[in-house]
Each structure stands twice: as C-alpha cells, then as structure tokens.
Write a structure and sequence with these properties.
- With 281 residues, the protein is α/β, with parallel strands linked by helices.
- 43% of the residues lie in helices and 21% in strands.
- The protein is elongated, with a radius of gyration of 28 Å.
- It starts with a helix and ends in a 7-residue tail after the last helix.
Length: 281
C-alpha cells in the first residue's frame, strides 16, 4: 500500500514539474512576442534592429581612401565611414563595420552578411536596381578635368579636341576624352596620368571629381588645377545600399541623412575629407 502511495505522489510531482515548465515556456514566448527581450538578443529585420536600438552591420572596403580606410593609428575612418557613424547616432543604434573586398560586397549584402553597404555605391545598372535600393544620397560626383596651372587654353570639354589626354583606355573617362576628340596617352591609372600632365607629356586628364578633390587637398603644391567639371545634371549620387524589401528601414536612414545635411554635418565632413561640401550637386 505504501509503495502505491509513493508511486502516486511521484507521478503528481512529475506532472506538476511538467506544468511549471510549460507555463515558463508560454511566458517566454509571450515576452518575446511583446518585445520584452534582452537588448543583446535583438535580431530579425533591419527595421526591428533600428526600432529596438540594436546593432546594424555595415559592409565597407576599409582600403578606399578617402571614403573608407585606416588612419595612421589604425582606426577605420573616411567620409563614408564617418557619415555612417553620424547616421547611427541619429538613429540611436550601434554600428558594426565588416570590411570586405569590393567584388564580394554586394553579394555579401544579398546573402545577409551585412544590413547595408557604405562604399560609394551608385545603382547604375538595371541588375543592381532590381536587387537593391539606395537611401538619400550623401555625396555626389561627376567627371572633372585637371590641367597644369599655367594652362589657359583649356576651359571646357570642347577645348580638348586634338589635345593630349592621359587616360586609361578601358575607363569611361577615356571614352569621354576620345569622344571629345582628344589624343589619348595611355596610362595604368590616375597617379600615372597626373604625373604625365605635370611632366608636360600630356595636357590634361579626366577622372572622378571626388578622387581629384582628394588629391588636390592632399597635394596643394601639385602644380595642377581644375579646368572643367560636369554640371549638376551629370553628377551621380551615392548613398547607403540595402536589399529590396527594407522600405521602412530605408526611410528612417534617409531621414537621418537629410537631417545631417540640414544641420551641416555632411558639409563639415565633406570639407574635412575633400576641402569642399560634396553632399550637394
């Protein structure tokens, strides 16, 4: 008889324990549904991380000065990096940068390795526009021409007809110079092109305005000057890139970018890295 009572009591204890476990699981599920989860476990969509003041991951190269690079102390910085930090501060979120090679950046975004990309990306192809969306632009760039400071005969793109232009053959800037009737002096890259112009082996070179502005700021005694640059209608904007389907999160990011434009933060960062405001056309 005693054995039967003991077995019955044990069974009751087991049932009670199971009931307590079930109740605890239900409470946990209820807490998760209501958003009462620890901050460090916030996951899910980009919008959820922004709304819960979590951490967003940002893909960037870290080797593309002055946009994203490491300074002398090893700190990751650059125009795009500091704009990202300013946006994160506006949103009240933490930011974790994940450095990656350019060729793997958009595929990494597509696969979910990053929440967004900050690396001077413009959605210029139908393939990119079909897969990704872009925030409000935080910088603009377009073609620019440099000549020697003593050059007075080149002031427009039409003036380069018959002139020697130092350009890489496969670039869109080389195509632009060819179309304008310039005589192409082939080079391997921008640095060689600038050297040839300084040495009077070429009379001009075309390239991206932000790259040239960075060069002129770092080399005030280069002996070169800006002869021409594209108008506002020809400039392309760069912003944060996200996967499609993040409309609400992207709207919050774009709002933060516009606030930074209005309060002068973008202007200040542009002047710091380029010597001029690059957030306007």
């Amino acid at each position: 008889m005693l054995k039967k009572i003991t077995l019955a009591a044990a069974a009751a204890l087991v049932l009670a324990a199971c009931g307590q476990q079930a109740e605890q699981k239900a409470q946990t599920a209820s807490g998760a549904a209501s958003g009462n989860t620890p901050a460090q476990s916030v996951s899910g969509s980009l919008l959820e991380r922004i709304n819960h003041k979590g951490t967003i991951t940002v893909g960037t190269e870290g080797t593309y000065a002055p946009f994203t690079y490491h300074d002398g102390a090893g700190k990751l910085t650059g125009y795009d990096v500091e704009v990202t930090r300013a946006v994160a501060q506006k949103l009240g979120v933490q930011v974790e940068f994940k450095e990656t090679q350019w060729d793997a950046m958009l595929s990494g975004l597509k696969s979910g390795r990053f929440d967004l990309v900050a690396n001077q990306v413009s959605l210029t192809t139908p393939e990119r526009r079909a897969t990704f969306d872009k925030s409000a632009d935080y910088s603009y760039s377009g073609p620019m021409m440099l000549v020697r400071q003593d050059e007075s005969g080149i002031k427009t793109l039409a003036d380069i007809k018959g002139r020697k232009a130092a350009q890489t053959l496969s670039s869109n800037y080389g195509e632009m110079a060819t179309k304008a009737g310039a005589e192409i002096v082939p080079v391997d890259g921008m640095a060689q092109a600038l050297t040839l112009v300084q040495q009077k082996r070429a009379e001009l070179t075309l390239n991206d305005s932000l790259a040239f502005l960075d060069y002129l700021k770092k080399n005030p005694n280069s002996g070169l000057k800006t002869a021409w640059q594209a108008g506002a209608e020809e400039k392309l904007g760069s912003g944060f890139i996200v996967n499609k389907g993040n409309d609400e999160a992207l709207a919050k990011i774009s709002t933060a970018v516009e606030e930074l434009r209005k309060d002068g933060t973008l202007k200040k960062l542009g002047e710091e890295f380029f010597g001029t405001d690059v957030s306007v056309k």
